[in-house]
Amino acid sequence: MTLLVISPDYASHLLPLVTLATAWRDAGERVVVATGPATAPIVRAAGFEWTDLPLGRGSNPRVIRAEQQPPGEDEALRGFFAATRRGLVETLLYQARARRADLLWDPVGRAYAVREAVARVRPDHVIVDHLAFSARLALSADKVPHADVVLGHPSALPVGGEVYGFPTDWPAAFTPAPAELAELHKACRDVRSAFTAEWNVALRSLSRTAPLVSDALAEHGHRLLFNYPEALHDRARTTLLPPHVFLGSAVRTETVPDDIRAWLDADDRPVVYVSFGSFLSARGDVLATVLTALRSLDVRVAVATGSARDLPEPGRDWLVRDFLPQTALLARAALAVTHGGNNSVTEALTFGVPMLVLPFSTDQFAGAAAIERGGAGLALDPNAASASDVIDAVRDILAGTAPEVAGQLGVQLRTTPGAVSARRALC
Fold first, then answer.
1. Rounded CA gap, 339 and 277, in Å?
2. Which domains occur in the chain, in start order?
């Protein structure tokens, strides 16, 4: 038996998919991962076969920096970071307007490359990232059964009257104006129409018989897998989803270097883990506010600074690196301060860690709202929160019921790992 995993050339997408694939590896089956060259070392380190399949202009082996991206993608990243400084609506407007270049890059050319990869590998099962639209276009055109893995909040797949790119929810800290939301909703509808038209043109060039679609952004694979805890998803929305499986989480095992293990064992004070992920670490101004706040609390701090620069002087006994083994730190943390990306959220919850979420973009707003309403943490507006706001939120989380709620969710998520659920769904 052979499993083919198809992922964009981004570590944040590839890592959970590779983790799901370990269930096939552990069963003695062949695993081939099709992605771009930047993340090939991750594939090989996991012991899987790699086949070259770039699915977009950009790449991110671990921490993304605009200056390391190809021409065009560098300016797009800088534009995105600038938009996050203007708030929820401006960020989502920017992302909506960039959607066709981001999600449907070279659709026919990439579809032919996917066809070639499938012909080479001859898989029995296929797992593909939901956001790899060009890959899913090829699989749909050729009627190749595949499992579609939604790695973000489940609202990344719109249902009912939802429009892709328009947030289904956001935390109470955000108060977008009705007129701005109306503008965003119209922009998302316009993008949906243009995106669907481009999808259908590409689909028809690949297949004369495949049925055209009315909303390409709502399309999904034969099997639908959500890398998300069902307990945090709105029950009313769950009833609207197509047949699906909630995987809970796909948490990788990381080797802990001796120096980091020694740091973890050196003190009994609670550990706060801070990371804004591979993209949003560029918001060093917000990270600086968080670090300033944490200096006044009796905690130890582990900070993955990513691409942030000019940060305040860290505490004397802090652990500060541009990259840290996240799951290893979360396993010992009392609190995570995060942007609310899917990996950070699901990994923190797996280890029963409550969160302070400062969301910047896409489905991070819906995810932050779910965490807050589910009682597993609190959310702040990153562009409005002061150091005193962060101090108050950290104290409220640690002194309240969030650690207990997160701990109970962690027990549930650890009982059946996502990789086991994924293989059961396909085999």
1. 7
2. 2-66+103-168+193-251+417-426 (3.40.50.2000), 258-415 (3.40.50.2000)
